[in-house]
Specification:
The chain is α+β, with helices and mostly antiparallel strands. 28% of the residues lie in helices and 33% in strands.
Length: 311
Amino acid sequence: MLHTRKIFNTAFVGLFLIAAALLVLLSSDTASALTPIPEPDPKPGSYGLEATKTKAPPTTGARITTPGNGASFSSSPITVSGICPGNLLVQVYNNGVMVGAVPCNNGSFSLQVSLFAGDNELTALVFDEVNQTGPESNKVTVRYTDTNFTAFGELVTLTSSYGRRSAAVNTSLSWPLQLSGGAGPYAFSIDWGDGSEPELRSQALAGVITINHVYKRAGIYKVNIRVTDANGVTAFLQLIAVSNGKVDGASGTQGGDSDSEQAAPRTQEIMWAPTAVSLGLLLPTFWLGRMSQLTSIRNKMLKERDVLQQK
């Protein structure tokens, strides 16, 4: 009887330890499953303006290689190109006014720039993702001579204080432009760079013009704006638009909560696992404990009977 009691006690303790170990293990797995996973780094095509670490501004600037210093032109716009560091934004200035912006691509940049009548001093600045600027580029001076429009103010000029603007996906991105010179009315053609049809609009007078667009997908887009006045004189402006938001997956959906909805049943399943195992082990553990208790009581009664018989 004593040997049987020891067997039951040993089995009871063994099952109890096994149950405790499984509960700890499953609880650990559940905690791991419920712990939020850090978001991955932004994928290509996404864009954010919030910086989590302090970052030094760019230390290397762009360099204009085309056109050459002292060149003369009789038509506008012209191509301005050069070299630049990293994946920065390059903004080109003409006589101190921003006249175009383009991303640095594989160490170089190229864009169309409208000229003013007479001398034009071209420079370039680079900007990082938090709009910190680098050193100014070399200065290139060119001359624009048009036999039909030689006086400044008769030419059409289109400029902006912003080389890059951003807005969330499916919200309106607004862009103020400065239209000067020429003779109204003016005709605008705006290519927003997202595959949509170019936007056509007219403007009676020069001044501040605000253009708007809603992007359906996150990404970085080149915006090309062309304006022509009543005399057929044209100005050109190239800018960079940023649509902030979650980058489309293979399914083509825009963000959404599909991932969290799919995760909920899995989380509930994991949370129920320890309970199921506990219930499965509870019955045999209770039975063994009960048998051990009955065996102990029986042995005690037999022992008391033997003592009485001896008396």
